[in-house]
C-alpha cells in the first residue's frame, strides 16, 4: 500500500465517526438480540469486565452467547428498546486501534408499561484486523 493510501486510511479513521457507528451497530445488535450481527462485529477472543461477570475478566464469546440465547417469557411481547451513546469520546490509539468511552442510555418500559431509562458507563476497544474493525475488549460499569 502506498504512503498516500496509508495516510488516507489513517485520516479516515482519525475522526472516530466509523468507531461511533460500529459501536451503535453493536449496541443495536445487543438490544435486538441479534447474535449474528453481534458475532460479525466481535473478535472470537474478546475480553471484558462487566457486572454480569461478578468482577471476573471474561474471555471469548460463550459467556455472551448465553444471554443472546435466553428465551423470551412465553406469551409476553418483547419490549421496545432504544439505545443511545451519550457524550462519546473516541481516541485513536493507532491507525488500527481505537478506544471509545461513553454513557450508554437504554430506554425501555418497566413491567407496568412505564418508560424508564437505564445507564451504564462503557469503554470499548476496537482493533482493525485484516482490514476490518473488530470489537476486542470492553469494560461496563453500572452507576
Strand-helix topology:
Elements (H helix, E strand, L loop, with lengths): L2 H12 L2 H16 L2 H7 E8 L8 E2 L2 H7 L13 E13 L2 E13 L5 E15 L2 E10 L2
Parallel strand pairs: 1-6
Antiparallel strand pairs: 1-2, 3-4, 4-5, 5-6
Question: What are the key terms here?
Answer:
143 residues, alpha+beta, six-stranded mixed beta sheet, 6 strands, 43% strand, globular, disordered N terminus
Give an account of the 3D structure.
Strand 3 and strand 4 form a beta hairpin. Strands 2-1-6-5-4-3 form a six-stranded mixed β-sheet. The chain has four helices and six strands. Helix 2 runs antiparallel to helix 3. It is an alpha+beta fold.
Give a short summary of the structure.
By secondary structure, the chain is an alpha+beta fold.
Estimate nothing, just give the exact number of structural domains: 1
SSE order: HHHEEHEEEE
Number of helices: 4
Oligomeric organization of the protein chains: single chain
- What name is given to the CATH topology? Nuclear Transport Factor 2, Chain: A
What is the mean pLDDT?
Answer: 87
Strand arrangement, largest sheet?
2-1-6-5-4-3
Q: Distance between termini?
A: 45 Å
For the sheet with most strands, the description reads: 6 strands, mixed
Number of strands: 6
Q: Helix fraction?
A: 25-40%
What's the overall geometry? Answer: globular
CATH class: Alpha Beta
- Name the structural class: alpha+beta
Amino acid at each position: 500500500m502506498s504512503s498516500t493510501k496509508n495516510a488516507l486510511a489513517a485520516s479516515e479513521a482519525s475522526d472516530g465517526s466509523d468507531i461511533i457507528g460500529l459501536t451503535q451497530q453493536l449496541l443495536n445488535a445487543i438490544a435486538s438480540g441479534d447474535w449474528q450481527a453481534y458475532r460479525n462485529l466481535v473478535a472470537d477472543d474478546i475480553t471484558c469486565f462487566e457486572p454480569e461477570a461478578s468482577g471476573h475478566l471474561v474471555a471469548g464469546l460463550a459467556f455472551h452467547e448465553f444471554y443472546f440465547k435466553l428465551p423470551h417469557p412465553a406469551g409476553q411481547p418483547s419490549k421496545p428498546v432504544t439505545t443511545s451513546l451519550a457524550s462519546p469520546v473516541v481516541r485513536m490509539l493507532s491507525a488500527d486501534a481505537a478506544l471509545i468511552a461513553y454513557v450508554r442510555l437504554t430506554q425501555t418500559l418497566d413491567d407496568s408499561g412505564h418508560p424508564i431509562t437505564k445507564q451504564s458507563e462503557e469503554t470499548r476497544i476496537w482493533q482493525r484486523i485484516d482490514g476490518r474493525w473488530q470489537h476486542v475488549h470492553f469494560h461496563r460499569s453500572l452507576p
